[in-house]
Amino acid sequence: MKSWPTPAAVELPANNRRISVFDSVSKQLVVTPSDFATLYVCGITPYDATHMGHASTYLAFDLLNRAWRDAGVDVKFAENVTDIDDPLLERATATKVDWQELAVSEIDLFRSDMTALRIIPPDFYISVTEHMNQIIGWIENLIAKDLAYKVENDWYFDSRLTDSVVQTMQGLVEDPLSVFAERGGDPNRAGKRNPFDALLWRSERAGEPAWPAPFGAGRPGWHIECLAIAKDMLGETITVQGGGSDLLFPHHFMCELQGQAATNNKFASSHVHAGLVSYQGEKMSKSRGNLVFVSKLLAAGTDPMAIRLAILRHHYRSEWEWTDELLDQAKADLARWRTALSGYGTASATNLLNQIRDAVANDLDTPRALKAVDDFVSSTLAGDRSDLNGSGLAARALDRILGIAL
Length: 406
Prior knowledge:
The chain has 406 residues and is of the alpha/beta class. The chain is 44% helix and 16% strand. It contains 14 helices and 14 strands. It has helices at residues 52-70, 86-95, 99-116, 132-144, 163-172, 176-182, 222-234, 248-263, 294-299, 304-312, 324-340, 349-361, 366-381, 390-402; strands at residues 20-23, 28-31, 36-41, 74-81, 124-127, 148-151, 154-157, 199-203, 218-220, 238-244, 268-274, 277-279, 282-283, 320-322. It has a five-stranded parallel β-sheet with strand order 5-4-3-10-11. The protein has a four-stranded antiparallel β-sheet with strand order 6-7-8-9. It is globular, with a radius of gyration of 22 Å. The mean pLDDT is 95.
């Protein structure tokens, strides 16, 4: 499946910093590789795209991608699209639109939003429906290893949770059983060996799309989809699996569990998560309907760089709230930056570049990086003309590392 255009790359002086990110499982900063890294980011279910929560998450991992590339790391990046799932089918039914048509239109909208926000596209942009044969193969592998079992005609992963795995799970969320139920699990289904065993394959139901498989027609469960796409595209143990913090459990936990069972290797070295975005006092979510859409802001004439800057004002792991005032401030800041960099002389741009790189290398600390930009702009507007060629270097630093094109 096609992704979207890659933003033009600009050159900067060499950078040998190692990039650190916060691993949500160990709850520690981890130093990522200096030569080669793989990144898998869980993509959208294509309905209600692209709201600000989506944008914040994908911008967070775009920042990691940019930081790696700026530091000379060779990056391979994959992202999925969950273009067959209960919420998509429910929305299609409610709106009387064919589910495939709905998916195509929302994916197109997502592509245009990502282009406007200057998100570097994945090397592998894979939908579940186009990867179905490979997903079926991974399920066959688990069945052959006696790591799957049937409940009626559905197949479940036999998790065989050990005490240490349960302890890890309890360290991720306060009430794992309730969260599992809230986020797509079915802990109370009769016939399951363990409440936390996750669905691998849902057998064909009347009126639902289904695909043929040796173990019966149907469609895949959530976790095995990402496992198959990530492993097939990126190989053994990926460097970072990323997504919103609501994916930590059960989704990323189950990807890790199933991945280790299938391959005898860790699924990911680190699991990294972006904080959730609120609006009007509540978490922005499809169920609440309190969504702010990138496309609607763009249609109203909003500069996409103002949207990007408004998001970057918050550390990627923080929980924060979108407001009109936040966007207005970003617009004003951008205007100020452009004024400062329109001349030939600026404050020391080399110092600014180093400050941005230091901040981003330390767990993608954009508030610290943007403070350096604000201070640089203030000094320049106050009359500091110590770097006669600084405006070009400063603009390239903002472009390459933070993705803000002036």
